[in-house]
Amino acid sequence: MINIQSKSFLVLLTCLLTTILLSQKKDSRWQNLRDTKINISKSGPYVGLQKGQFMNFEIGYEYQWKKVKLVKPKTNSLHLGISYNYFNNVLGYEFGYYNKTGRANFTYGINSIYLTDFVHNRIGITPVIGYKLFGFHIQAGYNLLTPVANFKKVNSPFLSLRFFILNKRDIDFKN
Description:
By secondary structure, this protein is of the alpha+beta class. The chain has helices spanning 2-23, 29-35, and strands at residues 37-51, 55-68, 74-85, 90-101, 107-116, 121-133, 136-142, 144-145, 157-164, 168-174. An 8-stranded antiparallel beta barrel has the order 1-2-3-4-5-6-7-9. β5 (107-116) and β6 (121-133) form a beta hairpin. The mean pLDDT is 88.
């Protein structure tokens, strides 16, 4: 009986000492995992519809980069696109940026736009606020354009729904 108790005590003491000695080791896997920085970049085309006073079809390319964190991850994106209104023959070019801080927060961005009806031209900027979920990105914005008396068939306030098609993804781990 004493022999079993002494063996149990010896096994317990060995496990306890091993745990104490190994916990002081500096090159711990958990320490390296905590200090690892993860950056993800994604790119691909998008298609969408813009609805305001007029309906526009959108197509373009988007590049996103993200710093993965447990608290408040940051996502940034650049996009370049073309929009077209078939019924009013208005073509638009758009270059924009948006930022999202957190997992379920809004996106805040700004776009620079150039619109033409092949006779007159308008340029401007567009502040946008949106929400992104599962590749869909809905945005509300207001086009602040240069005034042209003969070219009025463009959206001022609008809603835009885009679908991002993931084409390429890169993941970088840095210690």
